[in-house]
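Something for you to look into today, if you have time. What I am after is a single protein written out in full by you. I want to see for myself how the chain folds. Could you add the entry underneath, on a fresh line?
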Amino acid sequence: MPGPYDARALITPAMVDGYDAVPVGERQRLLRYLEAVVATRSMPVHAAVAFNAVYFGYDLGGDGYGGSPLCLDDFPVITLGESAPPLPVGAMACVATGSDPLYAEIIYKEGAHPEIGGLGDVPAWVSGAPAGAEGPGRPGVDPMPLRRELLVPDIHAFGPALSLSPAQLQRLRIRRRWVNEDGHVVVDVRYPSRDAARRDDRTAYADHLLTTARAQLLSPLVPVSLAELVGSTRTEALRPALLNLLETVRRVLGASGVLRMWGPYAMTRTSLAARRRDTGPLGGGDLRSLVAAVERAATPTRRRYGLNSPVTVYTALGPRLRGFPGAADQLTGLGYATAVCLANVALADGVQQGSERGLFPNGVRVTLDDAFEGGGVWRSHHPGDGETPDDPLVPLGRGWASTVAPASPQPEPEPEPLDTPLADVADIGPGELVSTDEREVVWRQPLRLAHLIDRCLPLRPYVVGELRRTRGEHPRIRLELHHSGGELRQSEAIQDLRAHLTGEAGCLAGVVWPPDFFPGLMLELSWPRGSQVIRVSTIRLDEPVRVGDRLTGHCYDPGVLTREDAPGSDRHRDTAVGLGPRQLVMRTVRRCGLLTLDGHALLDRSYLPFAVYGRRPARSQRDALESSVAELLAERLLEPAVGSRDVSGQPQYPARAGERVIPLIAYRPVHERVVMPWGGTGPGAERPRAVQFVPGHLRRLLPGCFASDAQREAFRDHCRTLGKADGWELPDGYTFVTQHTRGH
């Protein structure tokens, strides 16, 4: 069985580029380990918990994380019934007990809204309500919303040495001061912004690792360091790689034939089958009763004259399970997470097998309405045939939506974000003439966002004039496209296009741009004089680089990349509609800020709200922007800077002597070298070859073996690259394998 500290690492360089970039053999090796983790832990394993196992080295022999590099003193502390920072599933925490600390991994969490009844009856407005909602149709005004959550900690995740005995745990449950009677922790979580409270599990856990648990993520003692894989410790480089790695783990779990997924949670199919065969509490009989009860929950009451009144019932599974006789013992500790996930799977199967897109023969429509509150809130509605047949397993929050009244007319409605125009359109990416002689004309120009959206390619005025004189205003032109180091379809490599040549302007229309072409990609064009052929080539870099969140192996124009590759822009659209506050801030800084030659953009911080909305926004919008700026600065996706304002009111950078100093926020894309995996899976990579790059990693030694002095020194050098000022020595029982290539 492969393990995290084996000679062949489970995490490979290809995984930081996403699931599709990972060779099948590497996926299968990771899958075998993750299947063993799920089977060993005997509970639903969230994708973030699965990532922890492979990244921090979960031992399948019983020690868990007991021999891992985790620094227990760095764990955030949580206390039953008190306020706590956001802790996503996967977070390592210390549960305060009044005596010895209780170290745990958060393996499951759900909303614990106080309005949910003891048997799972849920007021309509709670289902799908945003964090901080105060009542039906009242989302609340606090920019830092509060939400009550139930956390299920695995207190045995760190091995026997750091676990409580059954008697000690029972005493804690009886006292109900540090954990509740079920061994869970209920806390009031204060989120830094409304946007943060809406983030999906993967993004929330990545944010946690990059901020609260950053030292844990960058520890040189993990089996394979993420910083080693991307060649940097900067957040800009780590974030996309971490998100890809988390997504790879989730998709590997979903590809298993022996595991069953409920959202991000994986469980073995054998455990599911065993529960359905079980005749005890919460076994197959109770699960079938639960499915039938939810189906019948909206059975209409008959009024006088034979009229049926519409009925809608919302049921939260967690509290509902407690109503079954003898279920209490099944819902303590990790058993609660298991019971809730299995109940959701049973309901999902019942809906898929016994209904038509959620509509049962009795006329009741059953759908999942909220996947978070109370272990999952299911909606039963009659008559169901009058509703749109959406996917019944996609939570739509119809309960909350039904209580939100249309907004009453306001003298001044909240402004919508502007589709910020491209600043400096004429000043960035002008292109340059490379050579001209009697045989051909060669020039370079960056690909622009408008070219991708409009599927066109502008031509130099001199070429336009020559072609129009010899071929007319609308000649047929053959475009020959060459993408160095990339693969093109035949329809992309050779294109027969119509040219539009009017005045000094002219372009080729209907261009099919390859999927990995992006705004700012530098193109080299040539026109053999007298021909009807335009040749276009990309320009290969010596080695791939990551610029901000863009990975490329080709030359690019930094100004165009900053301006036109901003959030809300892709080859199909360019709009701010639908962007969250963080994306609006990033888009506005990149679009409206002062642009430097190397692609930095700096914006007057006081001007941000006006630049986003075009006028003074509502207070809630302004607060959301400020909260997002604070988050982006803390994560170093933006940086603070100082400029000045001249006599005409225009901001200047750097600050000029004698002018009023003003605060700026700066987008500074960092250029990071990227070590590419073998097999040509990244941008600009060569075709597959039998050489594999292996990053430096720790490897467990056989009993009685010791690391050499050379490997100890190599590990010290490895620590220095990660900025580790202490902990230079290899842990006992391990050696360090330096980065190398495998194969020929």
